[in-house]
Structure formats: structure tokens, C-alpha cells
Amino acid sequence: MTVAFRVVTEIAAPVERVFALSLDIGAHERSMADTDERAVAGTTTGTIGLGESVTWRARHFGIVWSMTSRITALEAPGRFVDEQVRGPFARFRHEHRFGPSAGGTRMVDEIVFRAPLGPLGWLAERIALARYLPRLIAARNASLRDELERDEDENGDGQRGASSPSAS
Fold first, then answer.
1. Nearest one of 13, 131, 9 to 61, comparing CA atoms
2. Are 94 and 85 in contact (CB under 8 A)?
3. Are 3 and 125 in contact (CB under 8 A)?
4. What is the pLDDT of residues 36-69, one digit of tens each?
5. Strand runs (DSSP E) across 18-77, as ranges?
6. Do 69 and 50 touch, CB atoms closer than 8 A?
């Protein structure tokens, strides 16, 4: 079975800056420090672009996992999509959308995934992944938001935003 969810994050920073930081490998690593996520192959530094891939290694549920994702769509500064090409999921697609909002930028993450292993995967989706992944994305977004708003505050015009996951 496929699981889909959405996380909406308000960020007090311009759309172009939010979009750019979302494609930055170092920013991703900083935002996922709690899982010790690191880029280990492919594009491992700087900004990832259309058609490029990155292999991430991280610890989730006490196990070290690797996942290779490719940027399959990129329309600056409004949207990009990354999809797993190798890793623990039968399917994993993450669409990132960015648009102006009253406070700066509304960032919308829409994730669709399916665990492998048939009935066992379905059980893992329901027991753990459907709750864990939205919280993980919301925490990542909060880190990006904090980094961007700290930079905006240094310029004197930042305001605090919020992240909220929701199932769809």
C-alpha cells in the first residue's frame, strides 16, 4: 500500500533563498544531524541539480540505511522533485513546492512512499513509518527555517514561521 503525506512550513525569507537552501547538500546534512545523515556518493557538496543524484547514509530506528535519490524535476524557484533510485523503499517520491506567503515563503513537501516486503512492509508503514517520516520532514524543515530566519534576522526583517505535517 502507498502512504502519502504533506508538511507545510511557513518561512520568513524570500522564496528564492528557501528554494536554494533546500537544494544545498550541507544544509540538508545540518538539518538531519540527529540521524547523522551524510552525503556519501554522487553530489556530496554544494547545490544538487536536475538529473543529479546523491546517496545518503543515516541512522534510523537504530539501523544504518543508505538511499540514493535523483532530482527528477527542477523548476526554479517554485518546485523540485527527488525520487529514490536505490534504497530501503519500494517507492519514495518527494515533491518540494515553494510559493510566496504573507510572511515570506510557504514551503510544501508532499511525500509518497511504499515500503517493500508486501504485508510486512504494510505493517511497517502503519506501525512506524507513517508517523516517523512526517515528524522527520517537519524537523528538517524547522532546521532550514531556523537557519534562514536567523540569516534574515541579521538583516533586520525576519519573522518566525511554523511547520505542520498532515496526512493526505
1. 131
2. no
3. yes
4. 999 999 999 999 999 999 999 999 999 999 999 9
5. 38-42, 53-60, 63-75
6. no
The CA-CA-CA angle for residues 59, 27, 22, to 5°, reads: 105
Neighbours of 43 (CB within 10 A): 17
Q: Which three cell numbers stand for residue 139?
A: 524537523
Residue (of 115, 62, 63) closest to 89 by Cα position:
115
Residue with cell 540505511: 65
User: Which residue's C-alpha cell is 537544494?
Assistant: 23
What single-letter amino acid sits at 77? P
Q: Is the pLDDT of residue 167 over 80?
A: no
Query: Is the distance from CB of 50 to CB of 74 less than 8 angstroms?
Result: yes
Spatial distance between the Cα atoms of 147 and 150, rounded to a whole number of angstroms: 5
User: Quick check: 161 pLDDT over 90?
Assistant: no
Residue found by looking up cell 517520491 in the block: 93
